[in-house]
Design goal:
This protein is mainly α. It has helices spanning 18-35, 41-56, 61-84, 100-123, 131-149, 154-172, 176-200, and strands at residues 7-11, 14-17.
């Protein structure tokens, strides 16, 4: 991984690392695949997490730990979408809005998780460069991926909330390519949100046996 952690180029005065660039490009591809409801979003997300884990491991342990959790949630998402890929009537997972109970549970988990992780990062400063924002992004990413795995439209709202903090934090800490990618994420999230929102309003059409998906 040493070669991946070397500098690729300089953009607008920002030093771009190969690992930062490659990992985030895979993450961007995973988001596009998620928008299309392709099950391949999860293997690509897993690979992105693996590359970024290598980028952070050894000097930003908290961020490396975040990517390890991302990989675990990606495996969960793959399993969920494999189980539900026929529910949409077109060979893909059906999407829906979360119930108020599910929204409350995710909001409570995000708040409690952010506090717990931030306190952990604060107690062990080597785990994070900025405990509270880093914890917010960490937990927000996990909540967003969980909502995606369950086919919830709220997945996109969660990503927008992560972007609000992720963009300035990555630029401030030298991960410029991550910052640029988060800006692109924001635009794709709006398109994905619109698509999933409209799909959630459409009744599922059963796939006829023998018909192409």
């Amino acid at each position: 991984m040493n070669s991946l952690n070397s500098e690729a180029f300089v953009l607008f005065g920002q030093h771009i690392l190969w690992s930062d660039m490659v990992g985030n490009l895979f993450g961007l591809a995973a988001l596009v695949l998620g928008w299309r409801r392709s099950i391949w979003t999860w293997p690509v997300q897993f690979l992105a997490g693996l590359i970024l884990f290598g980028a952070f491991f050894g000097h930003l342990t908290g961020s490396a730990g975040k990517q390890a959790v991302v990989m675990l949630v990606a495996l969960y998402g793959w399993w969920q979408w494999q189980r539900g890929k026929e529910q949409g009537g077109d060979g893909h997972i059906a999407v829906r809005f979360a119930t108020w109970r599910e929204r409350a549970a995710m909001a409570a988990a995000a708040a409690a998780g952010t506090v717990a992780v931030a306190l952990l990062f604060t107690a062990y400063p080597k785990l994070s460069w900025d405990p509270w924002p880093d914890a917010y992004i960490f937990v927000g990413t996990v909540v967003a991926m969980y909502a995606q795995a369950r086919g919830m439209v709220e997945f996109w709202f969660a990503w927008l909330l992560v972007d609000v903090v992720g963009v300035p934090l990555n630029f401030a800490n030298g991960y410029a390519f991550s910052g640029f990618v988060y800006v692109i994420y924001g635009a794709l999230v709006l398109w994905g949100l619109r698509d999933w929102w409209l799909r959630s309003r459409q009744p599922a059409r059963p796939t006829l046996e023998g018909a192409p998906a």
